[in-house]
Design brief:
The chain is α/β, with parallel strands linked by helices. The chain has 8 helices and 7 strands, in the order βαβαβαβαβαβααβα. It has a single domain, classed as Spore Coat Polysaccharide Biosynthesis Protein SpsA, Chain A (Alpha-Beta Complex). Helix 5 packs parallel to helix 8. The two termini are 30 Å apart.
């Protein structure tokens, strides 16, 4: 079974659509949704929609905004599937690609599969976002001796037991480099497969910015040279 973690913060325009897409993926799954104290109506939508029957969905409501990292960590405590994957609620990633990652994991008998947006082409996002991601991925490869093409990808399919053992500390978007740093430093092999991607702009609600890039760099250096 696959555990799909969906951190949500102010995604009232997309939450219904992404839930439908995730549910339509033809694999056994549980969905663990965390509302990180949304203020745009997302919270109210979820409470009304799942008032009587949540089915295979578990919902956590934060009583204050804690960040993506905290949302993932809280959701992870409820995960019971064989693998975990994180799904952002903004429709940039296509849940149909779960099958690609799961198939690769089965074929390779792998603990970790990353969905790379850049294995085939960089033309899935803006030039500046591609450049920033390339820099961060290059730093990761230099520091950890890896050969990744997309360290910052949201689609990281990880065996649940391994994910829980990582003891993630990040509270915000720096969770992405922390996951990768801990996996690589722990000796886990990361296999990449190409996935589809539709990047959105800040006018559409994109939240990650240049300050998060500096936080990512600090996280990569910190976990390379600090024991844990």
């Amino acid at each position: 079974m696959l555990s799909v973690i969906i951190p949500v913060y102010n995604e009232v325009n997309t939450i219904s659509n992404i839930l439908e897409k995730v549910q339509n993926v033809a694999t056994e799954k549980e969905i663990i949704l965390v509302d990180d104290f949304s203020s745009d109506g997302t919270r109210e939508f979820l409470k009304e929609k799942f008032m009587h029957d949540a089915g295979n969905i578990k919902i956590i409501y934060h009583d204050r905004n804690l960040g993506k990292g905290a949302a993932v960590k809280n959701a992870l405590s409820l995960a019971s599937g064989n693998y975990v994957i994180i799904q952002d609620a903004d429709l940039e990633y296509n849940p149909d690609d779960y099958i690609l990652l799961l198939t690769a994991a089965q074929k390779e008998n792998a603990d970790v599969i990353y969905g790379s947006r850049f294995l085939k082409t960089w033309k899935t996002t803006s030039w500046w976002h591609f450049l920033g991601n390339s820099l961060l991925t290059a730093v990761t490869n230099i520091l950890y001796g890896s050969r990744l093409t997309d360290m910052e990808t949201c689609y990281k399919l990880i065996k649940t037991s391994i994910f829980k053992s990582l003891d993630i500390q990040a509270k915000r978007f720096e969770i992405e480099p922390e996951i990768t740093a801990r996996l690589l430093k722990g000796g886990y092999k990361i296999i990449e497969v190409p996935i589809s991607y539709r990047g959105r702009g800040y006018h559409e609600g994109k939240k990650i910015g240049w300050k998060d890039g500096f936080a990512t760099l600090w996280t990569l250096f910190k976990y390379r040279f600090v024991s844990f």
